[in-house]
Amino acid sequence: MSARSRVAPAVDRLRAANPYAVDAALAALVLFAASLQWMFPDEGDDRLSWQGFLLGAGTAVPLVWRRRSPFGAACAVSVFTPAMAVHHAPPPDVLYGGLVVLYTLAAVAPPAQRRFMLVGWLVGTSMTMTHKEGAEPFEYAFHLLSCLSAYGFGMLARLQRAYTAALEDRARRLERERAADTARAAALERATIARDMHDILAHAVSLMVVQAEAGPVVVRSDPERAEAAFDAIATAGRDAMTQLRRILGVLKDAPVEGGSARLPQPGVDALDGLLRQVGDTAGLRVELRTNGEPRPLDADTEIAVYRVVQEALTNTVKHAYASRARVELLWGEAELTLTVTDDGQGPGGRGAGGGGGGDGGTTGHGLIGIRERAAACGGTARTGPGPGGGFRVAVTLPVAADRKAALG
């Protein structure tokens, strides 16, 4: 065990003790040390008198108040120490009380007080030694260096305390920043999950409503078509449940049903299946066009592409009264441009996510979600009437290599 590890517990206990009890013990120790020279006198030493004892006590007792009033205690010690030296009964061999007050002032007092007291003690010590009978040169150096050392140790204690306070303040700020970052990350995660659940449920419910509305019409005249409608409703529901499990899986540490790892969210490769589902369920003819060489996308951008197409087609089914839609992927060197257009009524009527109530209408949650997804990936989104009528959603997203630069 090192000396530091043995001393540290004692230092901690001392710091935790009552400060006035500690200072009272320190005053008693200083008085005892100042009295050693007459308790064990050398030949020729002055004998103790009761006046000398009182003056010696005056150099120690004020230390009890060194924390409450450091400058006042220092002034009291500064008066009694030279008086004790002049009285010579006994003269002080070591400035015990002076060393303590110099240390205390250097550690806690304002600059003017501690500098005034240091200069006063250096000048007073020099003058006292000058008038002392038989003072040796080394005694000047001893007393002056003792004062400077005590003051220096006090300044080191001040600097250490300031450094510790700065570290603690920095730790508190880092903790607050970490808590804020955690809160922001949690809010972002909640917003992402909310958008995903909105897109999944809106898409599935829209397809289910379309088929449910068509089912009663054909249930007697065309039983096979009615059966297909109910199958489509079941398929849309199962697909929605599967995707919800994927999303909710991120909220749990346990694996998804069956013990397997959580499945990845759908991306660009899943667009064909999405378009087939919309075509089979809603009767909307959807065409997928791809231009350029596909480039790698990170996971968030992959999900964003799928969800944007899903939301745009959901709004087309719900609001546009369209017969066909087209999804285009234009791969560039640094970005992917995704465009979804339909031949419906457009924003002047009930276009894809445009007017007339519903999800894409008055509240506009669908279009807001599309813009938020694009912004989260460092891209942009534009919506409005298509060049040949209908409604158009155009989203530009950076490829994986340029996403960091896009997010800035």
Automatic annotation (TrEMBL):
GO terms for cellular component: membrane. Gene3D superfamilies: 1.20.5.1930, Histidine kinase-like ATPase, C-terminal domain. Residues 302-400 form the Histidine kinase/HSP90-like ATPase domain. SUPFAM superfamilies: ATPase domain of HSP90 chaperone/DNA topoisomerase II/histidine kinase. Its EC number is 2.7.13.3. Residues 164-191 form a coiled coil. One of its GO terms (molecular function) is ATP binding. Residues 345-365 have a biased composition (Gly residues). It catalyses: ATP + protein L-histidine = ADP + protein N-phospho-L-histidine. Residues 14-158 form the DUF7134 domain. Residues 340-365 are annotated as: Disordered. InterPro entries: DUF7134 (IPR055558), HATPase_C_sf (IPR036890), HATPase_dom (IPR003594), Sensor_HK_TwoCompSys (IPR050482), Sig_transdc_His_kin_sub3_dim/P (IPR011712). This is histidine kinase. It comes from Streptomyces fructofermentans.
